[in-house]
Amino acid sequence: MTDIMTPALGESVTEATVARWAKKPGERVAKDEVLVELETDKVNLEVAAPADGVLADIVAEEGATIGPGQVLGHISESGAAPATVAPVKQPEVAVAAPARTVVEAKPAAPPTPQPEPRPVAAERPLAPSVQRIVTEQRLDAGAITGTGKDGRITKADALAAAADAVA
After folding, report:
1. Which residue of 14, 124, 133, 147 is most buried, as measured by CB atoms within 10 A?
2. What does the alpha-carbon distance between residue 150 and residue 116 come to, in Å, rounded to a whole number?
């Protein structure tokens, strides 16, 4: 098994958010193929596969906050990895089932605080990629609902707002 590690994030960056996985467990990957996208306050990073093989598992799910050097997932260099992935994933699902009950109970509380992130996101500095989109499209950053960590506006949020403005 080869670990997929979080790369160095930059001089003053201490954490990143897993934005999107390009592959799912059990899928074949080639060395240097993009596996996952990470977002920080300053940059968006693409993490490439360190080896050929099969994506055995994902340790850091989308939306998770991770630090430099943290394991994101594993690549199995043998073709038998998908068979071993299923038993590993099943206990996690069983463990996650009680968590879903807790998660289902929590959504009742967040709808009230969700309108609050708008002003907070507008007061926070925007990531350079988001700032470029907001400036070029002449968007009001305060009117964009941020879906990132702590209500931050992500690049996807800015692109969606720009598409809505065009329509």
Report:
1. 133
2. 10
| Strands 44-48 and 28-29, sheet pairing | unpaired
Amino acid at 10: G
- Mean pLDDT, the chain, rounded, equals 74
The one-letter amino acid at 154: T
**Structure-token pair, residue 161:** 């707002």
Helix axes 155-166, 128-137, angle to 10 degrees: 10
| DSSP one-letter code for 11 | S
Q: Judge whether 82 and 54 are in contact, CB under 8 Å.
A: yes
pLDDT at 82 over 70: no
Does the structure show a pLDDT above 80 at 124?
A: no
Q: What is the pLDDT of residue 79?
A: 57
